[in-house]
């Protein structure tokens, strides 16, 4: 058996090679340029640097704690990558 992909046949997808790697400064960062930090509780936000890091709320966090985390992140001006936008919902209910 000979690999058609390794032989670079036109009808096969290209193999990953050295040229597919990104620059060292941007490697591992979110496309927005921030380093992702997984947040499980509101206290995790206190040690974050808002200029370099963005929060991603863990999948195991429930709705009640997620809302607390998002409001605290807004106070600290920390970007939340998977935000559900609780601030918008509260404004609509008041009107």
Strand content: 5-15%
Q: Mean pLDDT score, rounded?
A: 90
Adjacency order of strands in the biggest sheet: 1-2
Uncertain segments are none
Kindly state the number of beta strands.
2
**Form type:** elongated
Largest sheet: 2 strands, parallel
Helix-residue proportion: 10-25%
Terminal Cα span: 69 Å
Q: From the helix content, strand content and strand pairing, which structural class follows?
A: alpha+beta
Radius of gyration from CA coordinates: 20 Å
- The ordered string of helix (H) and strand (E) elements is EEHH
Number of helices: 2
List the helices and strands and how they pair.
Layout: E1 35-39, E2 53-57, H1 63-76, H2 86-94
Parallel strand pairs: 1-2
Keywords: Ribonucleoprotein, Ribosomal protein
Biased composition (Basic residues): 1-12
GO molecular function, one term: structural constituent of ribosome
């Amino acid at each position: 058996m000979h690999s058609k992909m390794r032989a670079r046949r036109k009808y096969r997808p290209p193999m990953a090679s050295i040229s597919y790697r990104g620059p060292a400064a941007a490697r591992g960062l979110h496309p927005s340029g921030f380093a992702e930090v997984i947040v499980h509780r509101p206290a995790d936000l206190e040690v974050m640097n808002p200029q370099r890091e963005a929060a991603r709320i863990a999948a195991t966090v429930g709705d009640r704690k997620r809302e607390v985390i998002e409001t605290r992140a807004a106070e600290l001006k920390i970007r939340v990558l998977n935000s559900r936008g609780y601030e918008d919902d509260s404004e609509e209910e008041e009107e």
